[in-house]
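Internal tracking record. Fields below are filled automatically when a chain is submitted to the structure queue. Please do not edit lines marked as system-generated. If the sequence contains nonstandard residues, flag them in the REMARKS field before resubmitting.
Queue: standard
Priority: normal
Entity type: single polypeptide chain
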Amino acid sequence: TCQFAARLITLTVHSALDAVGFLAAVTAELAAVGISVNAVSAFHHDHLFVPEQRAEEALAVLRRMSDQARR
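SYSTEM-GENERATED OUTPUT FOLLOWS
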C-alpha cells in the first residue's frame, strides 16, 4: 500500500555544495503554508517530494520565491 502519495519537484538551481540554508529557506516557505516536504539533495539538483494533492500549490510557492529572488 502507498504510505505517502507524493509528486517530485526538482529544483534546477545550481547552488554551491557548501551553501548553508538554501533548502531550509525552501522548506520553511512550504511549511508556512502547511505543505510537508521530504527533501533530497543531489550533486546538481535538489529534489522535493510533496503531497500529491498539494503539488500545484507547492509549485506556486516556489515560483513566488523565484520571482522575489530575481528582484
